[in-house]
Structure formats: structure tokens, C-alpha cells
């Protein structure tokens, strides 16, 4: 450009209006799986640049259609080993209820050959014994067939008992149990009537035991939802023992948690689902009467830490939430959260009795309380000394105490 005259440099103001609010994404957290496909959680907030400063805004001010995902797929490395199984054996009886068994072995994903089972010891293994039915026996009044005692129990055995006031507390969770279904006998009815009612009232319950079996077959409701809850340090594994869902009719089973979402219908029996966190919601949608699934769940210590030391978990039915005391060395980094999970048939109300975010609480955007409705993922932010009453649309909520 040397032969061409160079124009004079000049600066012009093009726009004095502030930039509109935009989505801000923090770097993704650790992958939820040590190998294979997992999920990495990331914090998505709505911010706006005002006078050279980044200011937090309410989410509805940012374009909803452009909101980034709160979790992204991640793969650290390919899993080298996995459990594999032989075919199921024939039913142990020619009629009535029996059992089926199968052999398990550890398989190398590289050579596709069995190796020492020690290589698979860190991976969850599906069940190797399940119930089966060979059809009705000619004499139903005779003794039970071998293996009949291994059949899944009815939910009446595993439903949470009605709490005797607020003093009854779970020995593991140390929180009040939600009131379970009341078992009142009908006039003239016996144990069969009570068992039948408990069999049909499994829907809408919260299960807090470490292990159990949930029978969702034969329920009257078209949509049947149950929840499983454990302390923060644990995660939940669910195995489908039996399934009579009609996939062609649109029947489906849905699993949802804070870090996972999965649906399925085909090849459900013996499928293994891991919650990756301490809560899991299972929703069953059926069209034909009598269809459903039987689940077996268990809990274990989480393989990865998914919470802050100042986080806490509440299972209701009522309680008081106090802003957790900040750990001195984490004061600038940690965001203290309170997770609330109640029975799916219930809803949550949160009332601010006393709120004081400091003398500058009314003037800064860095001190605030964030309440999230987990079912819709909508959040509300409260600043300063604002008193509020918040109500959920689902059975799970999260509260974050910032700064």
C-alpha cells in the first residue's frame, strides 16, 4: 500500500448503549466417569457488563433459546474392562415361580477375552439371579416351588413407615422421615386388604433405606413416580429385575438425577442405572393396566465427590435452613448449597424468616441467595434483606448461598 496515500487515523463513538445481558459459562467441572462416556457439570449464569463491571442478572433477562447446557459430555479414557454375562439358564421349575441364574466374567475391551475378575472390581455388576414364572401349576394350593422365596417382595415391606410425630428419625440420615401411607384396615377387611392398598400406593413415595425392592407393576395410576434418597456421600444403583412394559404402546421408564437423565423400554431387565449423586427419581408411564417394572436399588460410597464440604441434604417434611458456615480457606471459592428432596407427591415451600447479607447487601450483586426449582431448572435470585416465600413445582429444590 506504499504508493497509496494513507488516511488519517480517527476514533469515533459507535454506540453508547450497554451491551444486553448474556450467558456466562464457568469451566466444566470434573468428569462424572473415570472411563467411558460421562458428564461434566458447568455453572451457567446471566451477566451484563455495566460501567466496566460484570453484574449478575436474573436468568429471564438472557435469551432462553441460547442458554448453554449445564452439563456436557466428557470422556477421560476408554474403559479397558467390563462385566459380561452368559445366557440365562432355564427356569428352575416346570410350573409356578422359580429362579434363573447366569455366570459373570470380566472381559477385556481390547482382546474381547475373559481376564482375572480383579480387573473389574471397581465396576458395578448386575445381578446373576432373577425370578421367573413357568406358568400356573395344576394345583395352586400345594407347597411353594423351590426358589419362590427369592421372588421380589411387595412394596409394603419397603415403604417408609408413617413417622410418629417429628421425633422419629432415620438412623443413617438423621433427618425426619416424611409421613408414609397410613395403613388403616377397612371395616371387615383383613391383612389382604391392607396389602392390596399398600401394593397400589407405591407411587409418590420417597425411599430412604440403603437397599430395597420397589414393585411398580399393577398400579392404578398411568404415571407412577418414586424417589430414592441417601446421604450426600453416597450414590445409588438401580437394577430392573422384571419388566412388562409395552414399548410399541408408548410405555417407558424414566430415570432422572442432578447429573443424569435416561429413558428406556426395550431390554430393561438387568439394566444397571447409576445416579452419580445421592438422589434418583424414577417415573413409569404405562398405557395397559397391569404393566410395570420391579426395581432393586442399593447405595454405596460415591466414587467421586460431587458436593462442597459446606453443602447439606434435607429430606423433609419440614426444617430450618441456616446459611452454612464458610470454611476459611474456601471462603472465596465455595458456593454453599442446600438440597431439598421430598416425596414426589409433595411440594416444597421456602420462607425467609431472617435475611441479612451485610451492610452492603442492598448495593452489591455478589451477595445473594439463589433458589432453583430442579424440575424446571428455573432459578430466582434474592438480594439484600429481602423477605420472600418461594414454592416449587416439583419435589426437589436447591438453594445456593453466594459470598
Automatic annotation (TrEMBL):
It is found in: Secreted. InterPro entries: ADAMTS_ADAMTS-like, Sperma_CUB_dom_sf, TSP1_rpt, TSP1_rpt_sf. It comes from the Eukaryota. This is ATS13 metalloproteinase. The keyword Chloroplast does not apply. GO terms for molecular function: metalloendopeptidase activity. Signal peptide: none annotated. PROSITE patterns: TSP1. It comes from Dryoscopus gambensis. One of its GO terms (cellular component) is extracellular matrix.
Amino acid at each position: 500500500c506504499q504508493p497509496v496515500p494513507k488516511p488519517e487515523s480517527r476514533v469515533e463513538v459507535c454506540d453508547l448503549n450497554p451491551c444486553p445481558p448474556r450467558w456466562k459459562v464457568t469451566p466444566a467441572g470434573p468428569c462424572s466417569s473415570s472411563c467411558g462416556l460421562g458428564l461434566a457439570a458447568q455453572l451457567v449464569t446471566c451477566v451484563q457488563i455495566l460501567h466496566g463491571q460484570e453484574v449478575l442478572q436474573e436468568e429471564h433477562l438472557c435469551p432462553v433459546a441460547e442458554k448453554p447446557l449445564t452439563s456436557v459430555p466428557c470422556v477421560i479414557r476408554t474403559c479397558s474392562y467390563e462385566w459380561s454375562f452368559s445366557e440365562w439358564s432355564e427356569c428352575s421349575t416346570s410350573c409356578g415361580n422359580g429362579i434363573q441364574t447366569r455366570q459373570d466374567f470380566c472381559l477385556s475391551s481390547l482382546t474381547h477375552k475373559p481376564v482375572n475378575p480383579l480387573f473389574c472390581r471397581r465396576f458395578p455388576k448386575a445381578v446373576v439371579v432373577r425370578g421367573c414364572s413357568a406358568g400356573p401349576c395344576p394345583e395352586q394350593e400345594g407347597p411353594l416351588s423351590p426358589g419362590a422365596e427369592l421372588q421380589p417382595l411387595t412394596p409394603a415391606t419397603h415403604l417408609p413407615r408413617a413417622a410418629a410425630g417429628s421425633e422419629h428419625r432415620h438412623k443413617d440420615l438423621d433427618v425426619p422421615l416424611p409421613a408414609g401411607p397410613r395403613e388403616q384396615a377397612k371395616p371387615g377387611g383383613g391383612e389382604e386388604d391392607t396389602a392390596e392398598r399398600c401394593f397400589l400406593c407405591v407411587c409418590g413415595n420417597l425411599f430412604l433405606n440403603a437397599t430395597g425392592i420397589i414393585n411398580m407393576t399393577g398400579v392404578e395410576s398411568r404415571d407412577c413416580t418414586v424417589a430414592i434418597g441417601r446421604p450426600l456421600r453416597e450414590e445409588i444403583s438401580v437394577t430392573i429385575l422384571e419388566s412388562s412394559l409395552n414399548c410399541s404402546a408408548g410405555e417407558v421408564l424414566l430415570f432422572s438425577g442432578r447429573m443424569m437423565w435416561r429413558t428406556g423400554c426395550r431390554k430393561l431387565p438387568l439394566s444397571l442405572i447409576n445416579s452419580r449423586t445421592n438422589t434418583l427419581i424414577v417415573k413409569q408411564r404405562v398405557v395397559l393396566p397391569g404393566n410395570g417394572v420391579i426395581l432393586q436399588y442399593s447405595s454405596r460410597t460415591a466414587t467421586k465427590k460431587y458436593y462442597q464440604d459446606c453443602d447439606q441434604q434435607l429430606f423433609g417434611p419440614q426444617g430450618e435452613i441456616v446459611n452454612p458456615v464458610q470454611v476459611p480457606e474456601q471462603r472465596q471459592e465455595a458456593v454453599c448449597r442446600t438440597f431439598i428432596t421430598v416425596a414426589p407427591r409433595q411440594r416444597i415451600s421456602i420462607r425467609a424468616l431472617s435475611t441479612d447479607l451485610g451492610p452492603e447487601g442492598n448495593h452489591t450483586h455478589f451477595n445473594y441467595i439463589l433458589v432453583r426449582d430442579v424440575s424446571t431448572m428455573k432459578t430466582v435470585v434474592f438480594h439484600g434483606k429481602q423477605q420472600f416465600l418461594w414454592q416449587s413445582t416439583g419435589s426437589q429444590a436447591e438453594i445456593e448461598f453466594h459470598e
